Structures are given as structure tokens and as C-alpha cells.
Amino acid sequence: MGASVSVPNDDPHYPANSNQATEIKEVSSEVVKDNLASDNSKITMKKINSKTEIPAAIIKEDSQTAKPVPLSGNRSAKTVGPDNKNSKNNDKLAPPLPHKYNCIIQEADTNINQSELHSHLSSGILLNQKKQATVQKYWIDDSGCNCFMLFPRSLAITWAEDKRYWHWPSVKESSTSDEMAIEVAELLNVCWLEANGKLDISKLTPGVKYDILFVVMLKNSAYGWEAPVNLRLVHPDGKIQQREENLQVKPKSQWIELHVGEFPTPPQPDDKQEKEIQFSLFEYEDGKWKRGLVIKGVILRPKK
């Protein structure tokens, strides 16, 4: 009985176009054995390409025992896994350092451990607290952009040093790497409310739109806020944004944010020329005496 010798279609040696395959003749198993034993005998050949011909019986045997070849073409190729050295090194890459951080942290009140720099910057660092001048908090957000909070000692507040009008209690600022007490400005009684601040925009991350916000609290004993307060933002080029905020509808005895405006930093800052952004909270046209407003500071952070 004759046996039909065929080549599996999934054999890697099988021609892509089946029409190109040379016809395979039937031969008996005895003939195959005898022919393989004889050097001068001829058996049906399978044409693989224009240059190579091998016995069809051998093709069948090889196709049954062949093992899959890796896509690389190398049977001994190894797969790169998570244990690879380069992979480990990539996981340990430090995040990029923020804009001008080295100049900014020179004003820090405490020594900064370089090995924990990113942790310190994420938690927040107090600047100039011990000098009692331009007291600020500096930190970076999740995207690595610089953020600042200017506390009341950094602001120009009308009659701030007159104890009849303003009181300076201390509160704990726990959102920093080292918890410290900072002074806030509590309004006792004034008819002319005015608080102004400014910041060099070169400290802000380039090419980012920033929000500017006053952080304040109204005490339960607050009065005289029938007229809305004014919030003003002056850009380095002189452009002015101004809006009003009605404090009477705001919750009391908790910190709230009053949005002053927004400001886009230039993509390429000019460090040779200092440019400042100015912000104000004021109300003096109404002429009424006011009480119970506590100013914690001004936040400059990337717009959410």
C-alpha cells in the first residue's frame, strides 16, 4: 500500500504560495526504507526553493519533531524580564529637579537633606521665617511645578503695626516638612482695608498658567462686610484684572480662598530683568468699620 507524503502548512519551510510546491508522488514505506539505505537510489524529492531539494520522507519526519522557533529566529534567545539590570535602574531614576529650586531653597530656614530633597519640596519648605521678612512657603505640586504662599508678613497691610487695628496671632503650619508656627493678620477694626503683595515671576515655572488666591477666614464676630471686597491682579506688562467678592455669603470660622486672577508665565523667562506680579485685597470706599477678617496669605499655584 502506498503512503502519501505531505508537508504541513504550518511548516516554516513550506512555500508561502502552495502552487509553487512540486507534486509529491506516492511511494511505499518499503521503497522509502530501501531507497534511504542505498546511496545510488532515487526517491521522490520535495522542492523547497530553486536551490535546495531534500527527501520528502525526511521533510515529514522533521515537521513532526520540529519545535517552535522564537520570533527572533534564535532558539536559544532569552526574554528580557523585570529582573533586567537596566529595568531596575530605570525604576530608580529621580524625578526632574524643579525650576530654580537651588536659588529658592537658599532662603530656607532649615538645612535640606539632598537625599530627601524631593520629599521636602513636596511637603513644603518655609523661607525667611527666622528673618521675619517676606515669609513664604515653597513647594512643588504633583507635576513638579513651583508653588508659593506669601504669609501676611510678606504683604504690605495698611496700619498693620498699629495694635488698635491689627492683631498678629500665631497658627501652626502643618503642611510643611517641619511643622512651624506662622503669624497671621487678624483685623480688629478698620474702615480702610488694604493688603498688597508681589512676587518675582522668575521663581515660577515657565510656560505655566498660575492662579493667585488670598486665603482668609471670617470669625463669627465679624461685621461690616455689607460692601464686597475688591481683588486686583497687576501683570508685569501693566495689564489689570479686578473682581469683587461678597464675604457675607462665605462660611465662617474656616479658611476660604478668594480668587484674584490668573497669570501665564512666559515660556522663556528673562532672568536679567526682574519682573513682578502684584496682587491686592482692598475695600475703603464704603467707609464702614470692619472687623473679624483673618488673612493667612496669598497662594500662587498652577491652575487646576
Automatic annotation (TrEMBL):
**What's the superkingdom here?**
Eukaryota
What is the source species? Papaver somniferum
UniProt-listed InterPro entries? PP2-like (IPR025886), PP2-like/Lectin (IPR052147)
Organism ancestry: Eukaryota, Viridiplantae, Streptophyta, Embryophyta, Tracheophyta
User: What's the protein name?
Assistant: Uncharacterized protein
Any GO MF annotation of the entry? carbohydrate binding
Provide the coiled-coil residue spans.
none
Q: List every stretch annotated Disordered.
A: 1-27, 59-94
